[in-house]
Write a structure and sequence with these properties.
By secondary structure, the protein is α/β, with parallel strands linked by helices. Helix content is 54%, strand content 6%. Helix 4 crosses helix 6. The longest helix has 44 residues.
């Protein structure tokens, strides 16, 4: 940080950095502020409504249980594959609940989640909402980052365009309303990039903040590590431009020093997150950690806490498994390299996809926007490429940063000097908003109109794209008191919602009569036994576009 404060003064021309937003008349500033407030209010209503209605998704009980252990036992032993910051944020909501946890509990993290939510006398709905609430607040704050970043590039009109696409994004609403880590890590990465961009003018002010945001991303989810080298290069680039027209070696030296300072701050944030859980950093490595060889051995050299490094080994073990997936109606064993781009084409609203794609072109063709192209495009491309190399094709949540960066890119279209451009941009924003509003309140199974909309998403995708266990409560609301044969993919406990159910796969097919409820993700990967049960049944209903109800004679 001391390096940054010693940066010499310099002069920067308008060709190097797009101009900062000009002062606007007070009345216009109030209109912009009201528009921002209206968009974020709409998003807040959508997320809160969704959070209240949905039962736990597959990952949430683990995070909630781990957050409770953080609060009550200050132990790092659960969920080591993810750093603690995201769960510490959830703990800020859970701190307002009188959570009961048996101090003698010794089960694994999956059992822990079930124990906390369903076996300890806690109200599972209240605990879930309190854990989800900090993520909802954080998602709204990231909306302000999107607005500010886009306003820096293209003025208030660009900021509002980007914020509208962000606030109406079905995927951001869906995952921003869950107690999971995907939106927080993506938002922290976006924030660090925006602050690095602002450092082109004021590095002393913004580079330390960029380091904090980068550290927060890395301390939330390990997938953010792919963004670290990109962000550090952007930091050096910002300093390089700030010091223009000084000598090349001087600019390069200060750029490298600034990148090192930002890296040190980020590392400090990661250490602080672990020490916040346990100041003594007590840690026992979980059994069965895979060995490190080849390039993976370099991971053990990172100056990060031992629990973080062992958590990376857990992730390597996950990546070494063979996972199955479902894409565009076909079942695959093993990763499909084009899974994420194809899934994004299904899941992104057509208006947002069109504006984001056109905005990407604008960033590299409009002279005023070209300096911003590396900041908006390169992090998204690198993170997407890294995610595409993963073994787990389980949803676009692994690329949830894409709609964030595309929203910022779309802002550049307000600078297109064509008479038709403003009307076209407005029409596409409205198209995206209407598409989002039509899916309310079932945001998780959203797909765009080209692929049939939410009722047909399960025919193209599975898992967190459509059915993540979120509709168990809705199933209970509609069929409470009726005996159901249930094939459920999720972490909820049916009996806790008053559902009287049995698994039809445990009895002879000829003994299965009446209502048969099947999670759509189970249908996508149905074995011969389940396929036969479905073939002899008639679909009569669906719950939230994620559970199909059949009748068997």
């Amino acid at each position: 940080m001391s390096v940054s404060t010693s940066l010499p003064p310099t002069s920067v021309t308008s060709e190097d950095v797009p101009p900062e937003p000009r002062a606007r008349p007070r009345g216009r500033r109030w209109l912009v502020a009201l528009a921002v407030a209206a968009l974020l209010t709409e998003m807040a209503i959508a997320m809160i409504t969704t959070a209240v209605a949905q039962s736990p998704t597959i990952d949430e009980p683990v995070y909630v249980g781990t957050a409770v252990v953080y609060l009550e036992q200050h132990s790092l032993r659960y969920n080591p594959e993810h750093p603690p910051l995201g769960k510490l944020l959830m703990a800020t909501g859970l701190a307002f609940a009188d959570v009961h946890l048996d101090p003698a509990f010794t089960g694994d993290q999956t059992q822990l989640g079930r124990h906390v939510l369903y076996e300890s006398g806690n109200d599972p709905g209240r605990l879930l909402f309190l854990a989800r609430l900090p993520v909802i607040v954080l998602t709204l704050l990231f909306g302000l980052v999107v607005f500010a970043f886009a306003r820096d590039l293209a003025g208030p009109a660009g900021g509002l365009t980007a914020l509208a696409l962000y606030a109406f994004s079905p995927d951001l609403i869906a995952h921003g309303s869950l107690a999971t880590l995907d939106v927080p890590v993506a938002g922290f990465v976006l924030t660090s990039v925006w602050l690095a961009w602002r450092a082109r003018r004021r590095p002393v002010r913004y580079l330390p903040l960029a380091g904090l945001a980068l550290g927060a991303a890395v301390a939330t989810k390990m997938s953010a590590l792919a963004a670290v080298p990109v962000l550090l290069v952007l930091v050096a680039l910002s300093v390089w431009h700030h010091l223009r027209p000084q000598r090349t070696l001087r600019r390069l030296g200060f750029g490298v020093a600034a990148a090192v300072a930002v890296a040190v701050i980020a590392i400090g944030v990661v250490w602080a997150a672990y020490l916040a859980v346990d100041p003594r950093l007590r840690w026992t490595a979980p059994p069965g950690l895979p060995g490190l060889d080849g390039p993976r051995a370099l991971a053990d050299l990172l100056p990060l806490p031992r629990p973080y490094l062992d958590g990376m080994r857990v992730q390597f073990g996950f990546e070494d498994r063979v996972w199955s997936t479902f894409l565009l109606g076909r079942y695959h064993v093993g990763a499909v390299w084009y899974y994420l781009p194809a899934a994004l084409l299904v899941k992104l609203p057509l208006g947002a996809l069109t504006l984001g794609s056109a905005g990407t072109v604008a960033l590299v063709t409009i002279r005023r926007l070209r300096p911003a192209a590396p900041y908006v495009l390169v992090p998204a491309v690198v993170l997407l490429a890294a995610a595409m190399t993963g073994a787990r094709d389980l949803g676009v949540r692994y690329a949830i940063f894409v709609p964030m960066f595309l929203a910022v890119a779309a802002a550049g279209l307000v600078l297109v000097r064509r008479r038709w451009a403003p009307a076209a941009v407005a029409a596409l924003v409205v198209f995206a908003a209407v598409s989002s509003l039509r899916t309310f309140p079932y945001y998780l199974p959203y797909s765009n109109e080209a692929f049939g909309g939410p009722p047909r998403t399960h025919l193209r995708l599975h898992d967190s794209n459509v059915d993540w266990g979120q509709d168990l409560g809705r199933l209970a609301d509609r069929y409470r008191g009726e005996r159901i044969w249930l094939v459920y993919k999720g972490s909820g406990v049916p009996s806790a919602y008053g559902i009287e159910a049995a698994d039809p796969r445990g009895v002879r097919p000829e003994d299965v009569h009446g209502l048969l409820a099947v999670s759509d993700s189970a249908i996508a990967k149905a074995d011969d036994r389940l396929t036969a049960l479905i073939a002899g049944s008639t679909p009569i209903d669906d719950i939230g576009h994620s559970i199909t109800i059949y009748h068997r004679p």
